[in-house]
Amino acid sequence: MNSFGNIFRISIFGESHGPAIGVVIDGCPAGIKISEDMFEVDLERRRSGQKGTTKRRETDIPEILSGIQNGVTTGSPITLVTRNKDRISSDYELFGRIPRPGHADFVAGVKYSGNADLRGGGHFSGRITWGLVAAGVIAREIIKPAEVEAKLVSAGGSADIEKAVNQALAEGDSVGGIVECTVRNPQKALGEPFFYSFESAVSHIIFSIPAIKGIEFGSGFAAAGMKGSMHNDRYIDREGRTATNNSGGINGGITNGNDIFFRIAVKPTSSIKKGQMTFDFEKEEMTMLEIGGRHDACIALRMPVIVESATAIAMADLLLIDRGINQRKQDFHSL
Amino acid sequence: MNSFGNIFRISIFGESHGPAIGVVIDGCPAGIKISEDMFEVDLERRRSGQKGTTKRRETDIPEILSGIQNGVTTGSPITLVTRNKDRISSDYELFGRIPRPGHADFVAGVKYSGNADLRGGGHFSGRITWGLVAAGVIAREIIKPAEVEAKLVSAGGSADIEKAVNQALAEGDSVGGIVECTVRNPQKALGEPFFYSFESAVSHIIFSIPAIKGIEFGSGFAAAGMKGSMHNDRYIDREGRTATNNSGGINGGITNGNDIFFRIAVKPTSSIKKGQMTFDFEKEEMTMLEIGGRHDACIALRMPVIVESATAIAMADLLLIDRGINQRKQDFHSL
Amino acid sequence: MNSFGNIFRISIFGESHGPAIGVVIDGCPAGIKISEDMFEVDLERRRSGQKGTTKRRETDIPEILSGIQNGVTTGSPITLVTRNKDRISSDYELFGRIPRPGHADFVAGVKYSGNADLRGGGHFSGRITWGLVAAGVIAREIIKPAEVEAKLVSAGGSADIEKAVNQALAEGDSVGGIVECTVRNPQKALGEPFFYSFESAVSHIIFSIPAIKGIEFGSGFAAAGMKGSMHNDRYIDREGRTATNNSGGINGGITNGNDIFFRIAVKPTSSIKKGQMTFDFEKEEMTMLEIGGRHDACIALRMPVIVESATAIAMADLLLIDRGINQRKQDFHSL
Amino acid sequence: MNSFGNIFRISIFGESHGPAIGVVIDGCPAGIKISEDMFEVDLERRRSGQKGTTKRRETDIPEILSGIQNGVTTGSPITLVTRNKDRISSDYELFGRIPRPGHADFVAGVKYSGNADLRGGGHFSGRITWGLVAAGVIAREIIKPAEVEAKLVSAGGSADIEKAVNQALAEGDSVGGIVECTVRNPQKALGEPFFYSFESAVSHIIFSIPAIKGIEFGSGFAAAGMKGSMHNDRYIDREGRTATNNSGGINGGITNGNDIFFRIAVKPTSSIKKGQMTFDFEKEEMTMLEIGGRHDACIALRMPVIVESATAIAMADLLLIDRGINQRKQDFHSL
Hints:
4 copies of one chain form a homotetramer.
Chain A: E1 3-4, E2 9-14, E3 20-26, H1 38-46, E4 63-66, E5 68-69, E6 72-73, E7 78-83, H2 105-111, H3 129-142, E8 147-155, H4 161-170, E9 177-184, H5 198-206, E10 212-217, H6 228-231, E11 250-251, E12 254-255, E13 260-266, E14 276-280, E15 285-289, H7 303-325
Helix pairs in contact in A: 1-3, 1-7, 3-7, 5-7
């Protein structure tokens, strides 16, 4: 189940400390101009090196193995890969026996009967999101003129994100954060009832990203405390613009043309230097675990570009599906 | 896209005021005992008639059209339908011209070029969730001994749910609510990396339900304000039990055997008696809209059984997939 | 796996002697005019009553449960059902113990651990193709102006089909046949590399029909004995017309605009009056089995309309996929 | 649509003269031993160099990018790639203007609006089957103890295959052929009604292979001329063995445990040296086309291993699906 999408379909592969990671992008329309430098900005945003994130250096330049000729998509699958370098795996041998709290070590062990590659988190590593970001570059071209923009608005409960991250770093600890995402100029009519609503598609791909704990669209959890007379967004013009946007640009699972808006909760990085009492499955006793190596103090710092990319991918799929089924010649107001 | 699931796959159909609504359930193992009265409790919980919900009477007894013989599943698709009775459609003719704020009228008009059945919300009606609940009865049998239980914990921001609903009713208004869902005795190892994580599967189906605005697993949005040392759930025994359960029973998108826990935000019902200023797309001017007919004052009142059913359906699919791919003979601790 | 198609997706249900059989059609564009009498011709062609086919009377008028309002598709799933009447099931109790040669009795018993409904062939009955034909009526509207036409060209090895069927009837036996299918005015560019070629899609759905043993496109098996210089179809005009049509209108899995042509082999009906020595799985000894009841002497007589319908369904899916991904503004010759 | 399979799912990518070709294999059980030399025999069988096939040298050693650690599958996607070397693309520039008869040049031009990579056939090249064969090596491990074996039984209509190929070579022409495939020790119960019958799954993937014109299972087209009393396979023991095998080991779309058997028609290679009159889409006139370069005189020579691999892949998917849904504890005869 390492694929997402029905028509615009991406397949992700790789492990953190394996030879390479990558993505295959199927169902991409032919004739889209894609140059290698289009990947640089987004991959750089995702990359390590920011304050509080791991010092590990990832070259991350995508090699194009298929699907693009002379800078133009050909209609056949696009394959993007990057080699893993600078791999130090010695830290990870312990985690089959003493699975790290909050990590996938334990469940991966159960699910794959001890055969999972646990080095660096293996296929569960946040590093696998490289493929999401690379595919997102292409998805963004498909959904134009819609534009997706996400930003980190708080960390550890504070709007002073830098301070919160520095404090966690100093304590050998980590912090979570909130990411807000807005899509401007979205196409109308994206979202397929009953089971591929806009929110279903987006939440499906967003919850594939490691460390996500929650998502809310428009008014979100606040809606639970509101009255209908306050929550309903009244239409104000023939384009379907609304006076408020509690719906987050979505009604009945379908985009209405107003800005799309949603928020995401990111948990604190699970790998921390600080000692943790946990279970040793071999000795069958509690033990103190201190996790060495380099780890992000705030994984949420990398999230905005990952969330943007995932959203663009979901939207590209919804757009091609709607375009395929419905060939609209008229607008709602002229019915 | 009116189907959900890869192996255990349900397909939903029907409109609120059409002849019937129903569901086809494919990929159900043969040999499961299903009697008609097993549907009664859940469908009754979903049904109208509670205080604050619509007075419309829905008989709702499922007719079994296929897939069950002598009270046992046969391995072929199970089809359950119920007739729509007591349909009063005259109210709805206006909504093509003056789409109701918060409803799908406008987007349905755009998407289907004016051909959508808008009577009673058509295919966008909450009534369509009947099929979810009916299919959930079967899914619950598949996932045993796991048990799903949801409850409404607040309405309109208050734990005194009855009072909040009564007040909204008195004002011709409506209120939202919060639903909490717990799965006890869940199987370990449910969830398929990268794109069919447990949260992806559950959020996908949950956001198909009309009126859902947000979902959070385990610590959810609170995680964003926490530190890793506090958030990480330490293992305490060889079964993988954890001292805390901030993960909500899920690590790396895979169930770890601890209770699964998530919360859902439900918006206030969009249909309200109270007048609303909105746009008349024919006259191209603002107008006052008062919505007659019978409507739930708090759609969240019906949600617990719908959420339970959707969760059981997602879990059944994840269970059959995992069972198909992985034939585990051993537990993690004995590697 | 009782669904076919990616965007235009049909789901089939029902057993021969269960309450009803039917089909759900998802992904159908809104705005297509569908009247009940459009189903009559095709369903009548499929129906019993012809010489040599079973005397069982099937009313077969489809009831529309959803998706069509005032004779127009609404964009939501279309559900068509028909009740099973005139069911005489007493003949079938024996077949769990003495599975009929050539039938699915044995494999259904193994696969569903004895829970399959074997009455009248259950879900394996040719009767289930009712849903294919009903869905085909709608698919034909989508693929217009393409037109699909199939005919039975031989039975029991003879072009005198009536004589071959009469002879088999007289002997309490049955005969197979060959069906040829042509699509005129097909759209160009249908077929998705690598795994959803035109032939992949069509053969996939055709081999779902009971009793099909082979399929060949264009020159088919004769191609194996030909030379390339003879087999290649040379282009003769700017539309891409070819001088010959050994390709059957398909190159590289994609339609080229010439007529599509393929042939299908149908086996003789498995149920025959004539006695057959076979195994009694309860007594564990050979036994003579004579199958009573009414059975088609030549199931191939019903096949043309079923093959047409299946082909239209596959084409509708391919058309919506291609339309979704590729928005062509120009023809090949103007590149 | 470059993916095949529901649970065991492969995704193929690459163009003949692009940087690399490869395959991603998803849904592979963890714990299967895979060494690099397991690929050698099959890939060598597929490789060029045999008499009558192209002289182009393909190194073809697979590089494992993910999913295998220390010679064992990990449960995450397996990615296998090989670099394209020895690419001479100058021959192919002409084919956008004068599409080769029998090739995909014309349809690729239409479908992808002139953006398709036509060099060496691009994504339509037989070279892409490298990924099928590589994935087949893994699929064969999953379906053990079942064993798939295919062989070329005739070329150009003659059983003296070498002679037929030599003659075609001497004439600058090509010939087609017939491949027969047998599966020994197949699992019972593979095949999912209604739309994923064993034949549906196998024909779907087989018709993805370039140059296939027909497929027939068991008695195949001969069944059309037979009577039921002759065609029916009588059971002879409690395992379900049958006296004859006209069914090809499949009843009702489900394997019955007897050997599976099918035959495939392969057309003559489309690229031939011999001159062909065809249309010049730029000059809009007929022209003589002589195709230079190296080409197989009989593409069917490479087919046996490709057909075996495709069959194993389809069977692996069917096996994991059946295993997932049905947990059988008993055999048919003990019901």
